[in-house]
Amino acid sequence: MTSDAATATSTTRATPPPEGPDPGQEPPALGLGTSLPPADARAKTEGTFPYAADLWAEGLLWAAVLRSPHPHARILSIDTAAAAGMPGVHAVVTHEDIPGDGSYGRRVVDRPVFASELVRHHGEAIAAVAADHPDTARLAAAAIAVEYEVLEPVTDPEKAFAAEPLHPDGNLIRHIPLRYGDPDTVGEVIVEGLYRIGRQDPAPIGAEAGLAVPRPDGGVELYTASTDPHTDRDLAAACFGLDPERVKIVVTGVPGATGDREDPGFQIPLGLLALRTGCPVKLAATREESFLGHAHRHPTLLRYRHHADAEGRLVKVEAQILLDAGAYADSSSESLAAAVAFACGPYVVPHAFIEGWAVRTNNPPSGHVRGEGAMQVCAAYEGQMDKLAAKLGIDPVDLRLRNALSTGDILPTSQTVTCPAPVAELLGALRDFPLPTLPKDAPEDDWLLPGGPEGAGEPGAVRRGVGYALGMVHMLGAEGADEVSTATVRVHDGVATVICAAVETGQGFTTLARQIVQETLGVEEVHVAAVDTDQPPAGPATHGRHTWVSGGAIERAAKMVRTQLLQPLAHKFGMSTELLQIADGKITSYDGVLSTTVSEAMDGKELWATAQCRPHPTEPLDESGQGDAFVGLAFCAVRAVVDVDIELGSVRVVEMAVAQDVGRILNPSQLATRIEAGVTLGIGAALTENLRTARGVIRHPDLTGYALPTTLDAPDIHIVKLVEERDVVAPFGAKPASAAPVVTSPAAVASAVRAATGRPVNRLPIRPQAAVATPRP
């Protein structure tokens, strides 16, 4: 079914809600389905929210990290004497100060904390310094003398196959050969394409920061903006040579995340310095250090061949997908699995043959960024659909509708789509949504031209294009990942407390937790405890995990408390607890005999319960790329309208219209915000965001050289339709909201630029020369 509210239009220029209700108004509605505002909204908007960079401790020292200026080099010697002898310097640490082999990795343990013999990427950490002033720490780091033998970097992933091994584990991280159907099948119409996707940076609103505090027992506490604290704790403990129980991570001030928010490479040097000095040590990375130190979206090379019959129905898809993992493996195996599994898109394809590789190079490390793997292939397969439509003379929307996936269809991995898959419904809603009016050519409307105010273009050179794209993402982890979360709900004196190690990264989890408890227990005041590793693990904040797994654990714990609350009343009145309901803070029976408030029923008692949520298991893809690898899927359709100056190649996105499969709307306001943010991130990948390198060296690692879309670049974003068809295996029936528009929006923008220019547009971000076309007469 579809929600009436979902057909309303949402734009980026919406008026913000008032600070609070006017006197005399009804209090805001509580529970799921309401737009409960975030508890920290006021503090963040007023600038009083304590981020990790604001941390302080008595006797604080400052850390700085020395990083390699070369992408590939042999380390001949490291001399720390000059740095250690500087006034104010308390410690200098290198690879020699780390127990064992000194390597870490969330998925594959292959990345050294400090390079020892070889440098494998530009910006790799060599040593770290603790000093009594941040300037002293940076000067001391610069004083460390490192003698390098510069080596030829391997920066072309295609050449990595034949190159000398860059790592003891070799250059090939993973190869997935997907085989589905008959390889000899040939379509009546064939189109081919070569596509390149650039290196998008997560560009967190706040650069990495943290504080390490030594403990009396010889352990250490790390205060960071981690999004996966228990994994980070275990990695850090191994590098410190400590038991995990002696390392504690306290999640502090996460400013938002579009990927793995805090790379362990920032946390581990902090802890080493704190253990060495016996003093608290703080690190606040510069923006340049942030660009050099964390992982980015995988640059990807994709070759495609689509086969179709004369009516445009897909017959076979052949593809080769090459992910540039950079120097270390990180999440490349998982990203490749998503890319290969979704290489055909949300379309019915009876025969598919996909080759996927992830390889090491001397480029900057790649890792988890929202929509990894799925975004790259979406840009390619939708480019192919545009080519196929043009060759057949079929409307691009009609072509997509003829091939749209639906519930019960089978993916090329042989997994049956059991969840709701309203792909055709989403695309149909966009086709029926009115297009924006064309701008006038009058001089007073020049600001509408591509290039912004005072742009150099001429109105006569501007062409409008409309493009469509369909995308899909998977929910939770994949290929046998153990997805589990634990939560505790405690109620006392009319106040509920939720204890769960799920990190709020801007996805609205803490607000959802409050809504779940409010709806289940009728308690208005709900607090979500700060996250640390003394709590049971909840896993990483990726792929909508916490909405499903952690939200499910909270719901189960809250229902257990609800049973504890209602059982005495049910027993007293001779009825079962199922005949009692809680709403608006009141407990009533089905027949009206019982009516009391939750606070009266509590009568000063403290009730609590702990519960876990673990979804049904998945399995790894086999040697032919087959298997039930995903817990669930979510789908999105995007229509982009662009104006292109075909003489200058400048592009202005006029409007983005979105129709999305959300399962169930849990918080309308937050859902709209997440979708709009995802679309904007996708626009950045389509037009401006590309972390450029020259022979492996990052060029301009700052926010002047790396162009993020601003409010001036954000178009009107219309949420045309939100399909609420609940996934029966998901708690609340909800699906993740923000990854699907990130995946789909770049492909839609590229499709619109193709429509405006007639050019193939096979590279993201779109370069000006790719948008230049011959003016129409």
Characterization of the model:
This protein has 777 residues and is of the alpha+beta class. It has 15 helices and 31 strands. The strands form eight sheets. Strands 3-7-1-14-11-12-13 form a seven-stranded mixed sheet. Strands 9-17-16-15-10-31 form a six-stranded mixed sheet. Helix 4 (229-240) links the parallel strand 12 and strand 13 (247-251). Helix 8 packs parallel to helix 15. The protein is globular and about 75 Å long. 55% of the residues are buried.
Record keyword descriptors for this entry:
Ald_Oxase/Xan_DH_a/b; globular; 6-stranded mixed sheet; disordered N terminus; Xanthine dehydrogenase family protein molybdopterin-binding subunit; 31 strands; 777 residues; alpha+beta; AldOxase/xan_DH_MoCoBD1; 7-stranded mixed sheet
State the distance separating the first and last CA atoms.
47 Å
**Strand count, sense and closure of the main sheet?**
7 strands, mixed
Helix percent reads: 10-25%
Strand content: 25-35%
Give the low-confidence spans.
Answer: 1-27
Largest sheet, spatial ordering of strands: 3-7-1-14-11-12-13
**Alpha plus pi helix count:** 15
If you compute it from the alpha carbons, what radius of gyration comes out, rounded to the nearest whole angstrom?
27 Å
- For the secondary structure, the number of strands is 31
* Spatial shape: globular
Which structural class do you get from the secondary structure elements? alpha+beta
- The mean pLDDT is 90
Protein name: Xanthine dehydrogenase family protein molybdopterin-binding subunit
Organism: Streptomyces mutomycini
Biased composition (Pro residues): 15-26
Region (Disordered): 1-42
